[in-house]
Amino acid sequence: MTKQGRTNGQDIQPAASRLQSMVASLPATSRRIAQFVLDNVGEVVHMSVTELAERTASSEGSVVGLAKTFGYTGFQQLKIALAQDLVAPVQFIHEDLEPGDHPDTVIRKIFASHIQALQDTHANLGVHALTRAMEAIRNARRVEVYGIGSAAPIAEDAAYRLMRIGIEARALVDSHMQAIGASLTGPDVATLTISHSGSSQETLTATRLAREAGAKTIVLTNYGKSPMQAYADIVLFTMARETNFRTEAMTSRIGQLAVLDALIACLALQDYEASSEVLRRSFEILSLKRY
């Protein structure tokens, strides 16, 4: 029996064994979710909480509740625990690596995965969605950019680059500031939320509050269904694999940066003369910071 063959209780690793030991005693909805997870571990570690809820005819709250029943903080932590049953420890460094890989091989595999993520993101980035995001930003009095954890530096970079082309923008990377800022937005504000999983509670809350306040909400997230999309007016997709095991890996950030690069370049070209003038002035100001 391989590690993925878990339906008969044999060779079950810790996370799945905890589910297996209690599945019969769970309420009907939780039992249905748990049994689906046990029967499809290899597929579940690729899913968002929204996708699992749909596949099991349940709700996102029921999926999260099941995870908490077994001592996890949420579905993401349960996925990581299940993934640990499936993969070798070295794969938490990078999914394609193997113990003993020569540095040449490591370099080749790392770069290949990044190139693949860029190609996949390019193939799935809709021009219509990008155009709508451009219009929302151009029509806004200001832009607020939300990111938490590994998405925080991406949010700060996006806000900085928007400012460089003359668009008033600020990055909010503290959860309290995000909640306050989002609640004080309105129809004349556009928000850009960056979240690979689309399930981060802090940025999901900020996006929801901004939507409720009337702001135009843009979400940059990985391809697939996620809770945050329920509060997004516009969704820009990346395609990166580390959702399964490594939420802090570089691959997703490379995809995010590429999408933002395209978005900001299009915005600059849309108002070429004004953007060029602001860039020229900012270059002059920044030149004073250099010897």
Automatic annotation (TrEMBL):
This is MurR/RpiR family transcriptional regulator. Residues 13-89 form the HTH rpiR-type domain. CDD domains: SIS_RpiR. It holds the Pfam family HTH_6. One of its GO terms (molecular function) is DNA binding. SUPFAM superfamilies: Homeodomain-like, SIS domain. Residues 133-273 form the SIS domain. It comes from the Bacteria. It comes from Phenylobacterium hankyongense. The lineage of its organism: Bacteria, Pseudomonadati, Pseudomonadota, Alphaproteobacteria, Caulobacterales. PANTHER family: GLUCOKINASE, HTH-TYPE TRANSCRIPTIONAL REGULATOR HEXR-RELATED. GO terms for biological process: carbohydrate derivative metabolic process. Keywords: DNA-binding, Transcription, Transcription regulation. Transmembrane segments: none annotated.
